[in-house]
Amino acid sequence: xxxxLPRDPIADAQRNWERHGWGEVAAPMAAITAIMRTQQILLxxxxxxxKPYGLTFARYELLALLSFARSxxxxxxKASALLQVHPTxxxxxxxxLEKAALVVRSPHPTDGRTTLIExxxxxxxxxxxxxxxxxxxxxGQSGFGDDDVEHLIRVLGDFRKAAGDxxx
Amino acid sequence: xxxxLPRDPIADAQRNWERHGWGEVAAPMAAITAIMRTQQILLxxxxxxxKPYGLTFARYELLALLSFARSxxxxxxKASALLQVHPTxxxxxxxxLEKAALVVRSPHPTDGRTTLIExxxxxxxxxxxxxxxxxxxxxGQSGFGDDDVEHLIRVLGDFRKAAGDxxx
DNA sequence: GCAATATACTAGGACATCCAAGGGTTTGGA
DNA sequence: TCCAAACCCTTGGATGTCCTAGTATATTGC
Lengths: 168, 168
What we know:
The structure is a homodimer.
Chain A: H1 9-19, H2 23-50, H3 57-68, E1 73-75, H4 76-83, H5 87-99, E2 103-107, E3 115-119, H6 121-137, H7 146-162
Antiparallel strand pairs in A: 1-3, 2-3
Helix pairs in contact in A: 1-2, 3-6, 4-5
Chain B binds a DNA duplex through residues 1, 40, 43-44, 47, 56-58, 75-77, 85-93, 95-96, 108, 111-115.
């Protein structure tokens, strides 16, 4: 989207914060901004790898989640909770996955309010292939050192827990 | 958006990866997924704080960037590069900020292709107030320890540099 | 047993991001 | 000098996310 900048824009922002007397919060500001930017970079990589499979990250996540479910099916509200996205986002993803014949909607056997999302055979196959691609081209070459990975998992895990994501 | 889950869904995903023989990349996968989720949580907090000011994070970032520019003005392509977003995203943000009378578009004095974005007096005031709010309500209470903040800045800085964000 | 409340999903709208294309302006090499 | 290539911004389209209803089904409590 652009060539490398001569200087780190986030480090510059941190300096600006300090220069304006906000030194107390300059570092957390920089850390948070860095997280936002890193997410953007990672998402772009992931989407790039998934594109040939006709998937986006949101759809892939749903497919992967289903592929780990015992029966290959989950209620929509369960998927929404586990993926931690708004129910309408799941509706959106399922609409498109269903159109691509990768999942099917089916009524819940006992609760008339609930809709089950079920993986089709093609859906399962594609999930597997996409996962292999992601493992090879993104997760296997994250660019993070092993120690840093462990540190990120711990620090961000604590953060997510404090934010109310899970009890555990 | 939902109540806390009984278990950390990302830790579960990591276990699933290991169980399927992808142990090599399970940890990086978990770290990357955690970054995505953390970004989502932080963005929601930021947007929540900015909403009373009629700003979104994208618009705030542009406003803040302009407020640090000597003249309070920047060419659109410069803003695009510094914010590291697609030019069309800047066009979109400027359209809305201009409608809110927080910035003004003006022609570049010597290059007819370029458009300058200029902060208005209200824009500058609002940027200051919004920044104070973010400093108090988000950056000042990030939930990250000081050491973790330093670590994040370093690790993510290295990552962004390796990704081609900047030379430095 | 029935009304009030809670849950589950979806439709419509606001925003943001990116990509692909198009029109105007500059730059540079023949 | 002059036209092709490069650059800048905008428009239009595809996606994703969230919020705010609105409809349908379950559960609760009196």
